[in-house]
Amino acid sequence: MSDTWQTIETSTLRGRVETDRIAPSLYYDPALFEAELERIFYKTWIWVAHESELPNPGDFRTTIIGRQPVIVVRDKTGAVNVLQNRCRHRGATVCEEHKGNAKGFTCPYHSWSYALDGTLRALPYGDGYEGVCEKGDLPLEKLRVGIYQGLIFASFNKDIEPLEDFLGGAKPWIDLFMKQGAGYPVKANGEHKFKFKGNWKIQLENTTDLYHFPVVHKSWMKSIDDETAAAITSFMTSDEAFCRSLGNGHSLAVLMPELVDLDQDDGAPLPERFQELAAQLAERHTPEEVRRIVRSLMGVGFNLNLFPNLALSMAFFRVLRPISAEETEIRHIALAMDGGPDEANRVRLRIHEHFQGPFGFGSPDDAEAWERVQRGAHAGPDIPILVNRGLNRETTAPNGEKTAHATDETGMREAYAQWRAMMEA
Amino acid sequence: MDDRNVLNTQETFTRAVQFIWREAEMLDRREYNAWLDLWDPQGYYVVPIDPNTTDFAATLNYAYDDHHMREMRVQRMTSGYSASASDAARTVRTVSRFTLSSDAADTVEVKSSQIVVAYKRGANTIFAADLTHRISFASGEPKLQQKVIRLIDSTEALSAVGFLL
Questions:
Q1: b/e sequence B34-47, b meaning 16+ C-beta within 10 Å
Q2: pLDDT of A337 strictly over 70
Q3: Mean pLDDT throughout A344-355?
Q4: Which of A151, A236, A391, B10 would you label with B43, given CA atoms 20 to 30 Å apart?
Q5: How far A38 CA lies from chain B's nearest CA (Å)?
Q6: Cβ within 8 Å, pair B157-A342
Q7: Which of B64, B82, B160 comes nearest A353 by C-beta?
Q8: Which ranges of A171-296 would DSSP assign to H, the alpha helix?
Q9: Comparison of pLDDT for B4 and B43, the residue scoring more
Q10: d(CA A153, CA A146)
């Protein structure tokens, strides 16, 4: 791999990624893809799990960063470790379950066994290693781990900046996002996983692309009530909605300003479609709690894009994983109120199913558009992909954050600025 | 069980299998409005994710459709407003390996296997699943009370689906 990325001529990247346009080859150049793995996915903070997925010691889930399989596991002390899923002997994975609870991990090949913190505990017939190597020198390799608001990030880069510095301007928005627990902790509650034949950056762009929403998701909007459809697309003409760059590649698209801070109740009537649920909740909750829970059902009124692989998108986490230059896996993780009312959590599940996943009313149409981008981008290799919408109305705050209309491409420009900075580094 | 009961069971089972094959053909032909008429309005169309769950309401599914959601899903697929549904894969499915798993007075539950080959833009994709149909004969006409489609790879990443399983 490292031989490949060295062949990238970084001096040409400036010509392939400009402020307002990118070269289509960014979507399909395999050499560039290898370089992205090395310079982005193996260098920066990558989201790997949410703490609610690992409530108890021994709880684990496996995932892949770039091409490298890892295990995210809570050990006996309660600490979260992210371990390379690779036996130190001959390289076999030591765990192939998506998630579960384990006392340790044993390699199926020669039974080398590892503790939850990666320590090599035992190997059979150790006499062949006497004077050759020490068990203590052969743990499962650990990645750096950072946790913010339950979001677990890992990095292969031992010299990486602290997670909080990396998140920077995104942190207050993460805090706001987590308020949709409505007084309960936010909990991961199942996920939809699907693949599309296209480059990962097409998905990355999409999270703050509100311009596509009324077009691509017309069939979803026709399937919901008029009140909700009007609320969710009000950003098209609203001056309150906006798109903003937050630094380090992160960006924000606010589509429903009234639902940015769920602690701020504007007193507006609860949506008609949730009246029945509200009546049920009122049997066991105060009127204030009912409003708080119901106002949070659709999540927050914004999408927060965290470069490069996570988005906090209204009511769910969106996680992307590049498979190859022309294929990407997406996970949409549903969220629940941990310990909250079952009937409200069930409504949250139904809302998620309605839009997300390979059978949803929304995601398949997104995937169709992205695959069309991937196919079309091969035509006219010299014709740029435009990310210039709203440059005429973008303003820059003293802290450097740029803001433009909700339908503008400020977020994409931020992501590509970070992409270029990391690729040129 | 006397001979007459055996005959009744055989006859009901045969009718159920014919019903399931008729449904399969409707779905391959995208006769979705006709498909809606096969349903008992109280019925649920379910594509679970968790291979072990039976409490579908309390878990995240790919689809958990009551009457209203089924109607909206069909509307979406036939409206022309959905790019993925308008340009959906063509499908050919085989349903077989039928077994009668329960047999109450007016209702039968039939388990089967389904292999759908979906063709779109030069690629064939396979969707393999175990099916469970609960079919009521109470009104004389068979009606679907529940259809559960357990994809063998439900916990893996799937491709977007613009048709009904």
A1: ebbebbbeebbbbb
A2: yes
A3: 96
A4: B10
A5: 24
A6: no
A7: B64
A8: 171-177, 200-206, 213-216, 218-222, 226-233, 275-281, 287-295
A9: B43
A10: 5
Measure in Å the smallest separation between the Cα of A172 and chain B Cα atoms: 29
Mode of pairing for the β-strands spanning A59-65 and A99-101: antiparallel
Are B159 and A220 within 8 A, CB to CB? Answer: no
Partners of B93 in the β-ladder: B116
Q: What is the enclosing helix (H) or strand (E) of A189? A: strand A186-196
Average pLDDT for chain A = 95
A331 vs B contacts (CB less than 8 Å): 157
User: What are the tens digits of pLDDT across the range A91-130?
Assistant: 999 999 999 999 999 999 999 999 999 999 999 999 999 9
Report residue B14 as tokens.
């045969």
Q: Is residue B39 a contact partner of residue B67, using CB atoms and an 8 Å limit? A: yes
Query: Which candidate, A212, A229, A223, A193, places its Cα nearest to that of A365?
Result: A212
Question: Given the DSSP bridges, would you call strands B39-48 and B143-151 parallel, antiparallel or unpaired?
Answer: parallel
Tell me the C-alpha distance between A168 and A182, whole Å. Answer: 25
Q: How many residues does chain B have?
A: 165
Q: pTM to 2 decimals?
A: 0.95
| Burial class, A130, CB count within 10 angstroms (exposed 0-12 / middle 13-18 / buried 19+) | exposed
**B83–A368 C-beta distance less than 8 A:** yes
